[in-house]
Structures are given as structure tokens and as C-alpha cells.
């Protein structure tokens, strides 16, 4: 009996070790979340990256990824310290294949390297700004499958490039390159391949220095004003947004900094 107990005692540490190794192996083999959020550190505080990480399916968004994406959007929206969101892909040569960020009240920048087709372009259209590497390809090919873009493409594209251009792109399913995208207003910038992220970060830094409440209200005024039935209604939206900023601490800080010729320090209040 003593020999059995002794043998049992000797085996126990090995068993725990094997369990630990097994657990670590499971962690290594487990696939990463298809959607992840990364806060940048100083000097880029206030900028976060929403990364799409499903290389095995070229970042196609399934129901699980969509659930995670909605959770990330809600998390960002509830965080007052976040000022700008960069939407990026960890998969070389692919942006994404379907999602929607229209719910965010802060600026969103799509970083496009490679293909942004179908749902991928629809995701980019739901962002406020689009930065393309020169290797980017954009298009809505759904009519070739006897369907239509179903995640906002038929509504957002004409509001960005105009009704006629949008109809041509959707009817023909034609793809355009980054240079064409900039010319038609579909993208804000075309930069050398591999440099879209750096250009987007440059813009994000510039935006993050501004008053966060002012940025949120500017986005709201533009987006809701564009949906208004007429110009008087749109101007009323602008007026409401302006009034919400009149008695904020940030407005007083902005005025004081201007008078004192210093850089403002905004609190988002």
C-alpha cells in the first residue's frame, strides 16, 4: 500500500504538468476571435483599431463574427475615451466580405488594401472615410449572381458617388481600382500599396486632436441632415446639434485655448 501511495504521489505532479501542457496546446490551437479591438497607446490615445481576422475565409462575416462585431461596436460606442476607429484587416490582400458600422457616433476610417468586393465594399461604405492602397479593388458584383447588394450598397453608394455612377457599378458589377475610386469620390485617398494604414492613422491623429463632442455632433449633423426631406429641415438638424455644444466644458476650453494661444485639452464634457 505504501508503495502504491508513493507511486501515486510521484505521478501527481506529472499529471498536473500534462494537464497544463494540454491546456496551453488548446489555447494555441484555438482560432483567434474573428473580430478584435485594439486600443493604441500614447501618443495615439483615443484611437482604436477594429481588426478583422478570418484568413481562412478571406474575412467573410458569418453569424458568430457578426455577433462579435455588434458587441465590439457597442463597446466602442459606450467608451467616451474613443475618438476615432480604424477598420483594418489582418489578412493580406483582403479587406472584408460583409458587415456594418453605421451605428457608431464617432468617425470611422476604412483601411483598404486589396479586395473590397460585395459586403466588403458595403462595410467600407458604412465608414465615414476610406483610404485605399493602390492595389485595392472595389465593386458590388451581386447582380452577376442574380441578387442585389443587401447590406446597404444600393442606398449608400448613390449617396456617395451619385445615382448614375452607382447604377452603372451595380448594374454591370464592374470593379474599379483605387485611382478610379478617388476620382469618383468613393475613396478619400489612394496611397502606395501597404501604406493605407499609415495614411489612415495620420488622419485619425488629426481628428483625435479636435473636440470629441464637436466631432460627434458634426457627424450627426451631416448624416441626419443628408436624410432630411429639404434644406430647412437639414438646417434645423444642424441648429439642434450646434445648440447641444454651447454649454459644454470643451467649448469653454476651446475659447480659452484660442485666447491664450495654447493647445486645447479637451475632456469630452
Task: Please describe what this structure looks like.
The protein has 269 residues and is of the alpha/beta class. Helix content is 48%, strand content 14%. The chain has helices at residues 2-29, 63-78, 119-125, 153-161, 163-172, 178-183, 196-208, 212-226, 231-243, 249-260, and strands at residues 35-39, 47-52, 84-89, 108-112, 115-117, 129-133, 137-139, 176-177, 189-191. The strands form two sheets. The protein has a six-stranded mixed β-sheet, sandwiched between helices. Helix 3 (119-125) crosses helix 4 (153-161) and helix 4 (153-161) packs across helix 5. The model is unreliable at 1-31 (pLDDT under 50).
Proportion of beta-strand residues: 5-15%
Rg calculated over all Cα atoms: 24 Å
In CATH terms, the superfamily of the largest domain is 2-enoyl-CoA Hydratase, Chain A, domain 1
Report mean pLDDT, rounded to a whole number. 83
Distance between the termini: 73 Å
Spatial order of strands in the largest sheet: 1-2-3-4-6-9
- The CATH topology of the largest domain is given as 2-enoyl-CoA Hydratase, Chain A, domain 1
Low-confidence stretches: 1-31
* CATH architecture assignment name of the largest domain: Alpha-Beta Complex
- The tally of domains stands at 2
- Count of helix runs: 10
CATH class designation of the largest domain: Alpha Beta
Amino acid at each position: 500500500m505504501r508503495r502504491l501511495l508513493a507511486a501515486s504521489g510521484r505521478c501527481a505532479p506529472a499529471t498536473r504538468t500534462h494537464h497544463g501542457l494540454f491546456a496551453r496546446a488548446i489555447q494555441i490551437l484555438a482560432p483567434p476571435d474573428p473580430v478584435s479591438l485594439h486600443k493604441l497607446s500614447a501618443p495615439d490615445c483615443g484611437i482604436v483599431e477594429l481588426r478583422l481576422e478570418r484568413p481562412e475565409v478571406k474575412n467573410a462575416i458569418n453569424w458568430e463574427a457578426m455577433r462579435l462585431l455588434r458587441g465590439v461596436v457597442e463597446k466602442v460606442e459606450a467608451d467616451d475615451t474613443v475618438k476615432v476607429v480604424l477598420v483594418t484587416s489582418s489578412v493580406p490582400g483582403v479587406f472584408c466580405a460583409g458587415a456594418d458600422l453605421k451605428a457608431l457616433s464617432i468617425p470611422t476610417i476604412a483601411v483598404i488594401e486589396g479586395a473590397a468586393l460585395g459586403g466588403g465594399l458595403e462595410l467600407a461604405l458604412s465608414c465615414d472615410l476610406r483610404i485605399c492602397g493602390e492595389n485595392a479593388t472595389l465593386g458590388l458584383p451581386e447582380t452577376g449572381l442574380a441578387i442585389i447588394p443587401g447590406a446597404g450598397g444600393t442606398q449608400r453608394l448613390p449617396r456617395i458617388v451619385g445615382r448614375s455612377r452607382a447604377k452603372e457599378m451595380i448594374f454591370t458589377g464592374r470593379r474599379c481600382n483605387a485611382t478610379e475610386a478617388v476620382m469618383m469620390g468613393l475613396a478619400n485617398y489612394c496611397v502606395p500599396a501597404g501604406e493605407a494604414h499609415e495614411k489612415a492613422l495620420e488622419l485619425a491623429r488629426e481628428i483625435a486632436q479636435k473636440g470629441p463632442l464637436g466631432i460627434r455632433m458634426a457627424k450627426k449633423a451631416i448624416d441626419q441632415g443628408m436624410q432630411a426631406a429639404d434644406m430647412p429641415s437639414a438646417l434645423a438638424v444642424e441648429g439642434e446639434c450646434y445648440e447641444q455644444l454651447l454649454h459644454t466644458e470643451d467649448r469653454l476650453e476651446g475659447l480659452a485655448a484660442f485666447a491664450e494661444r495654447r493647445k486645447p485639452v479637451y475632456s469630452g464634457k
